[in-house]
C-alpha cells in the first residue's frame, strides 16, 4: 500500500525480462523536483550514475532555448525507490498490461539512470524560458531493486550507445550554417562533386571518395566567421571560389576527377585530401580574405600550391606537422604547423601566435 500522499501518472505498463516497467509523460517543470542525482561526493562504486559534467549543461540548455519550436529529446529512464501501484483502465486482457494509472508513494525517491544531463539542461532552460515548463518529456520508470541493479541498468543502457559519425551528423544537421554550405559544395562544386563521403568520417583504401563531409565542414568553419555564415548565398559563393582555385592547383585532385588515379591511391600516397590539410587550407583562406580587401586575386596568391610536395614520403616537411610517426595527425598544434608550412610556401606571413608555435617547433627539431 502506498501512503495517502502520492504522485499519480497516466502510464502504459509493459514487461521486460519478466519485470514490469511503466512509460509516462512528465511536465518539464516537475523534472527538477522529482528526479534527483546521487550524492556526487560518494565514491563511484556507491553511486548509481556517473558524476554530472557541468560544462555540458549550458550548451544543452542553449539548444533547447534556441530551438524551442523544434528541439527533440529522447526519454529519461528512472528507477523508483519506494512503493508503487498500477491501476489498469478496464479489466479485460487487452488493457491489463497497457493503459492505466501509476501511483507512487510521495516519499519514494526517483533516481535517474539515463538522462541526467538532459534533466539538468531542462531545469536551466526553464529558468530562462518558464513557458517551456508546460511541455512534456517521456519517462520510463523501473521499480528500484537496489544499488547493484541501478548500476547494472546504467551499464546496460550505455553499453551499446554509439554516436553517429561526424559526417553523418553534418549531413543530417539542418540548423548548422556551415553544414549547409558543406553539403551545397558537395553537390555543386566541381572539386567536391561525387567525391564526398557523407556517411563515414574515415575512408577505406577501396573507397571511391576523396574527402569526408566532416573534413569539409571543419574547413568551412575555420574559413568563415559566424557572421559570414549568416548569408548562405555569399558564404557558398566565397567557398566555391576559394576551393575551386585550390582544386586547380593540386594535380592529383584533377586526376581523380578525370579517372586517371583512384581516390584510394591519392589518399594513400598524398596528404592533401586529409582532414588536417583541408582544415589548414581553410585557415589560409581566412587569412587571405582578411588581409586582402575586396576580392583577392586567388589565382595569384595560391598558384604556388602546385609547387608543394604533398607526398607522404616527404618526411622532412610533414613529419611533426601533418604526420606523427608517419601517420596523419590532427590536433590544434598540428593544424597550426601544417597551416604555417602552407603559408610559408605561398610567401604569406605568419601571425604572432603562429610564429610562436613555429619557433618552438623549429627549435625542437634542431
Automatic annotation (TrEMBL):
Q: Which NCBIfam families match?
A: DGQHR, DNA_S_dndB
- Gene that encodes it: dndB
InterPro entries xrefs:
DGQHR-contain_dom (IPR017601), DNA_S_mod_DndB (IPR017642)
* UniProt protein name: DNA sulfur modification protein DndB
A Pfam family it matches: DndB
Amino acid at each position: 500500500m502506498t501512503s495517502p500522499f502520492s504522485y499519480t501518472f497516466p502510464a502504459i505498463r509493459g514487461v521486460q525480462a519478466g519485470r514490469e516497467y511503466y512509460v509516462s509523460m512528465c511536465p518539464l517543470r516537475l523534472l527538477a523536483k522529482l528526479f534527483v542525482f546521487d550524492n556526487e561526493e560518494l565514491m563511484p562504486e556507491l553511486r548509481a550514475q556517473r558524476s554530472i559534467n557541468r560544462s555540458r549543461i549550458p550548451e544543452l540548455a542553449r539548444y533547447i532555448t534556441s530551438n524551442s519550436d523544434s528541439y527533440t529529446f529522447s526519454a529519461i529512464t528512472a528507477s523508483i525507490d519506494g512503493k508503487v501501484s498500477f491501476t489498469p483502465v478496464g479489466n479485460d486482457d487487452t488493457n491489463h498490461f497497457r493503459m492505466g494509472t501509476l501511483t507512487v508513494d510521495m516519499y519514494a525517491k526517483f533516481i535517474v539512470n539515463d538522462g541526467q544531463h538532459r534533466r539538468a539542461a531542462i531545469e536551466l532552460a526553464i529558468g530562462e524560458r518558464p513557458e517551456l515548463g508546460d511541455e512534456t518529456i517521456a519517462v520510463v520508470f523501473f521499480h528500484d531493486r537496489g544499488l547493484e541493479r541501478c548500476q547494472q541498468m546504467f551499464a546496460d543502457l550505455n553499453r551499446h550507445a554509439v554516436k553517429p559519425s561526424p559526417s553523418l551528423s553534418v549531413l543530417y544537421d539542418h540548423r548548422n550554417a556551415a553544414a549547409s554550405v558543406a553539403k551545397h559544395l558537395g553537390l555543386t562544386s566541381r572539386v567536391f562533386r561525387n567525391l564526398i563521403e557523407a556517411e563515414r568520417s574515415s575512408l577505406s583504401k577501396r573507397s571511391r571518395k576523396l574527402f569526408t563531409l566532416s573534413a569539409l565542414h571543419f574547413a568551412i568553419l575555420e574559413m568563415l566567421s559566424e557572421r559570414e555564415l549568416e548569408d548562405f548565398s555569399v558564404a557558398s559563393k566565397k567557398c566555391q571560389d576559394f576551393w575551386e582555385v585550390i582544386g586547380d592547383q593540386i594535380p592529383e585532385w584533377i586526376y581523380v576527377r578525370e579517372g586517371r588515379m583512384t581516390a584510394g591511391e591519392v589518399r594513400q600516397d598524398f596528404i592533401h585530401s586529409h582532414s588536417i590539410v583541408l582544415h589548414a587550407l581553410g585557415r589560409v583562406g581566412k587569412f587571405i580574405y582578411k588581409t586582402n580587401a575586396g576580392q583577392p586575386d586567388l589565382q595569384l596568391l595560391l598558384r604556388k600550391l602546385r609547387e608543394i610536395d604533398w607526398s607522404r614520403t616527404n618526411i622532412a616537411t610533414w613529419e611533426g606537422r601533418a604526420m606523427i610517426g608517419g601517420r596523419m595527425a590532427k590536433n590544434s598544434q598540428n593544424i597550426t604547423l601544417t597551416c604555417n608550412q602552407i603559408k610559408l610556401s605561398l610567401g604569406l606571413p605568419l601571425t604572432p601566435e603562429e610564429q610562436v608555435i613555429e619557433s618552438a617547433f623549429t627549435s625542437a627539431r634542431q
